[in-house]
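Dear colleagues,

As part of the handover before I leave the project, I'm documenting each prediction I ran so the next person doesn't have to rerun anything. This entry is a single chain, and its sequence is reproduced below.
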Amino acid sequence: MGASSFFLRSLLKKRCRLGKEDPERLEERMGTPGIERPNGALVWFHAASVGESQSTLILIEALLQQNSALNILVTTGTVSSAELMAKRLPKNVLHQYYPLDHPKWVAQFLDHWQPSLALWMESEIWPNMLKATKQRNIPAAIINARLSARSFKRWKLAAGDTETLLNVFSVCLAQTEEDAAFFKDLGAQNVTISGNLKYSAAPLPYDEKDLKTLQSAVKDRPLWLYASTHDGEEEMACRLHKHLQKKVPDLLTIIVPRHPERREEISKACDKYGLKTGLRTANKKLPGDDDNIYIADTMGELGLFYRLSPVACIGRSFSNDGGGGHNPIEAAQLDCAVLHGPNIQNLAQIYEDFDKAGAALLLKSEQDFQSRLERLMSDSDGLDALQNKAHRFAQDKAEILDIVMKTLEPLLQDLNKERKCA
């Protein structure tokens, strides 16, 4: 235990130096609580990162509609997700960083918080935490559960141990038929296909005043958005811009990076192409008339730029890291036409559903991207049709929250009984 503790402490210090941990709250990552536990029943949500956090917000809102006085704790593992939670969690909902999976740290966390119900989002399986949760007889469910084929094969190698861990969850709500099959094969109990909870998310927030200010600044300039970009995609945006501006000289390309701290790296990439760029973080700088690229290097403003832009390519679908894809539903909900590259394996079912419905366009290569975007820039009717299909498709899927809440009802009833007894 001593050696593993030393290793994990060293890892946390290294991550601090890289800006991947909050030095002011590092003790939380070692199981030491940063705040007091409130009295009464407490529901604990664990959401690893930003994507899972957004799904969590949907359920939290639904639970608080049933009981506004309910105690809720949310744990996440990344700085960006903590920043998102700070902006979007209701005031009476608590946030803590999730402790690394060391037995002592896990025990310290659970002994302090004593959750009445644990709801884990998507796919994180931490052995020590799950074992300790089981030992304390804490009711638990895994929601929006997903498992890639690669992860399934890895967990299958330790089938017996995996089944023991998954049996901590009395309910498993899987996103797709394939996910359900994987979890059943690994020994999960009461597996139900709910669909992806992200479809039931409220539209991303945006500031109406900021939107009007941006609309005034860009005037009637044609523009497009590259959303949640990763390494390699910003340079692709620059190449696309260079090509498109031959026919659309006043074009504005907006880049919203997934990780705003990469702003200098992105600016340098744009400079290589001789393009004039503006950074939003410079006192909410607006796009200038002579700016080619506008880098929206802020947190929590993606909804604003989906509202501003008629068309967006969803990032991490052409990235140098092999991709995986980010959430297209957010763009569709805000009347933004959806484009995406081929590497969307992390959200394959969502993208497959979008593509089949004609609610998104799959771009098979950079050349395909170039020709499709060029066509949309000159075809307002085609662009309007794609926007409308995306919006209608997202609306039609919004009933998934009802399925999730109905499946969780027995666990929530037990929670209400506990509160009455207390």
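Residues 15-200+398-417 form a domain with the Rossmann fold fold (CATH 3.40.50.11720). The mean pLDDT is 93.

All the best with the project,
I.
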